[in-house]
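Standup notes
- DV: blocked on the single-chain target, sequence here:
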Amino acid sequence: MQSCDAGRLAGYLLPVLVVPTGLNIRQARQLAGRSKVLAVKEQRVHGLISPLRLHSLSVEPGTALDGLICGDYRLVSPEVLEQPLDAWLLELIRQPLLVGGEEELLGAIFLEHVLHSLWQIMQEQSSVLKTLLELLDEAICIVDSGGRVTGWNQAAEKMYNYSAREITGQKLSDYFSNLVISKVMRRDEIIRANYHRPCPDRHVLINAAPVKVGSKIVGGISVEKDISETVQLSQELNLRTVRLQELEARLSQITVQNQPWQDIRGGHGGLKDVLAMARRIATTDSTVVIKGEPGSGRELLARTIHRASRRSQAPFARLDCAGVGGKHWEEMLFGGARTPGMLDELTGGTLLISSLEELPVAQQYQLLRLMRDGRYISAYDEKVHRVDLRYIFSTAVDLATLYHRGKLREDLYHQLNVVVLAMPPLRERKEDIPELFQYFVRYFAGQYGKAIQGWYPLVMSALLNYDWPGNVRELRSAAEHMVLVTTDKILQPSDLPAYLSPAGEIIAVDGSSKLWLATEQAERDLISRVLQQTGGNRSRAARVLGVPRSTLYYKMKKLNLL
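- DV (later): unblocked, structure below
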């Protein structure tokens, strides 16, 4: 293998042997061997001859050397050895370089030796590339700047049934359409682990990048992992579950009234604790405060408590304090001069007051009197009305913090601080993401009339790697986006919202990893995580993952998780 000095003049320096005049060819060849430049010198250097030229001359051995040497050369200082080869190519075409001084010669550089060395480097690199291509299990395709195939390994032959002999030198576009390799060359970009369908019966994960010399694109390389068998198996298994999913959806609609808690999905320990407490107090009229970040499911929990209570047949209403001035808040609740308030139609039901942290202190006293007395004076008809209500509050800030900051009256603080349910954010219950995502995908697939049968592992990997600042609401929107934009029955990484897939790149994969490892590792991590959260219960894990138990068993066996 050639040294790393191949780009510098130093990589082509040959040693010099100073000899006197009067030698013949036989003597010169014996002295030079195959590696030394002879410098013929008396008072000064009369000329040079390279070992390559010396041994290729077709002359009699007794022929005088003096008449065959090159007297035209350029004497240069040793500092030039650190300079790039391409800066001296034109000079080498005209004459060889003698490095050093007349008294001390370090070596010489000849064009024929440079060309010979470059040819050897090219041969070695070609052999390395050929060996590498045949060692890889992925299909490799290399094209030049014109899109003609210059590299095509055995895996590509097997995948596409075109031999290297047949396709090499031909335009790749004559054999395939929608070429990813052409796109990356045209856009000067790199893609990794991108799902692609090069032909109707073939599914691949592809890495592709342009090949550059400096800033000039001279070709492109693609690396493809065949996942057709996995996709087809997944499609077949998902088709078998479609009918089951439809039946489950119908059953869910029938039983929703009798099972109000089933809409809150997830198995996270913190969520279970919240639901256990909520079930215990749902049948009472106790005031409830639900603390949690926006989008974490506070209103869903409030509505579920209402549906599970004795007031389930009475109205449920929500009054949002966010962005509402005190006077307007009063009119919405108690009524105004021209319109009645929501309390007029709410007796016997449940009132959710959301964003408690935004309620002005001036209105907090009115709310406290309403809760204590169960009556109010309507501004609409100026009469006293009695109202029987259950109160539920939601807040993003805990009650003690609001009280100590002076944003919550002390008497109202003690009135509310009875039962506080803290909804965990989605980033703390990521094991619930597969179940929630499956639920939302089914829901929106029904809404938009799409037969979504599943998703690729890289989709779930992207969902699990995101922190979800918008919580369940943001996940719901992401699922709706994917159902809307997909053109396939299997959700693909390219269907992900842009913020889950920056710059169109599907998922970050370690450059040292193989494509099949990226896919399998995502599946292995997901299945392991769900099994851990379900205590090793495969039936429940299969339900969370949205696959039949037989599919989960097959995957576990394939991934050595059994």
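- Follow-up: Residues 531 and 541 are 6 Å apart (CA to CA).
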